[in-house]
């Protein structure tokens, strides 16, 4: 199902765009991807879930993350004992949240006067309701202002872990639920489902995150592991790019599975054969059982007639 949805809604339309504007004979993007000599993944394997991985996959998680600097927010940072940034990424705008969510966030933030809350918000409807410890801006440099309440986007997770700060993850869509579960599993984040968002739930999550030191310790541990890695992502990017440029053909790293069609890849022919055999066995068993029961019934009736 995932394969079908990915092909139907992503790779197929994108292939058509290339064929329209680049070359009418442009190959399918799936074919281009399968012949790619190397795959560089912007994810950190030290906190990702262990999984079987091809030799052609190189992790370069954390690439391009800059040093933190509070900059224009220094005044807030100096007067606050703690800062929490509330960001839902560049796609989900906080101004479009349901009113119930807005009230829940504002009321929960108001309950922590010793914490300064900073959020990206381009609407005007909350200006008169803002508590003194809540500050809104039309744009925020997320990497400069952490810890955070986040939508658990891919970049947000990487930035938070590399900065060594825990998070409250409220996933919205796509890969975010998986990222939030990962943060919860590694104990550097608190997972709060969309259906659970309320004033009390937010208060409890903020209280736990700021008072339970185990979350900070867990993320600091992963941060140190990343910092002490033998190779930095920038080095891997340069070295592997030079390597591919020198040898070009790395087909010895390409698995045979790229040559399999949809039916072969998902073993649909094997599954069909097994289902067919099992169905025949079940039908045969049913027929034989029915035949035996019928014979026994006839013998019983015949015996009964003789005795009578």
Features:
alpha/beta, Rossmann fold, 11 helices, single chain
Task: Produce a short descriptive summary.
The chain is of the alpha/beta class and 308 residues long. The protein has eleven helices and eight strands. The longest helix has 40 residues, at 268-307.
Task: Give the helices and strands, then pairings.
Blueprint: H1 2-21, H2 29-34, E1 39-41, E2 57-59, H3 74-79, E3 82-87, H4 99-110, E4 115-120, E5 134-137, E6 148-150, H5 154-163, E7 167-169, H6 176-185, E8 189-191, H7 199-211, H8 213-227, H9 233-247, H10 262-265, H11 268-307
Parallel strand pairs: 1-2, 3-4, 3-6, 4-5, 6-7, 7-8
Helix pairs in contact: 4-7
Classified by CATH, the class of the largest domain is: Alpha Beta
Radius of gyration: 29 Å
CATH architecture of the largest domain: 3-Layer(aba) Sandwich
Principal-axes shape call: extended
Strand % is 5-15%
Span between termini: 65 Å
Low-pLDDT segments, ≥5 res? none
DSSP helix count?
Answer: 11
Largest sheet: 6 strands, parallel
The CATH homologous superfamily of the largest domain:
Glycogen Phosphorylase B
Instruction: Enumerate the strands of the largest sheet in spatial order, edge to edge or round the barrel.
Output: 5-4-3-6-7-8
Oligomer: single chain
Order of helices and strands: HHEEHEHEEEHEHEHHHHH
Beta strand count = 8
| CATH fold label of the largest domain | Rossmann fold
* Main structural class: alpha/beta
Total number of distinct structural domains: 3
In round numbers, the mean pLDDT is 84
GO molecular function: glucuronosyltransferase activity
Transmembrane segments: 270-296
Pfam families: UDPGT
Family: Belongs to the UDP-glycosyltransferase family.
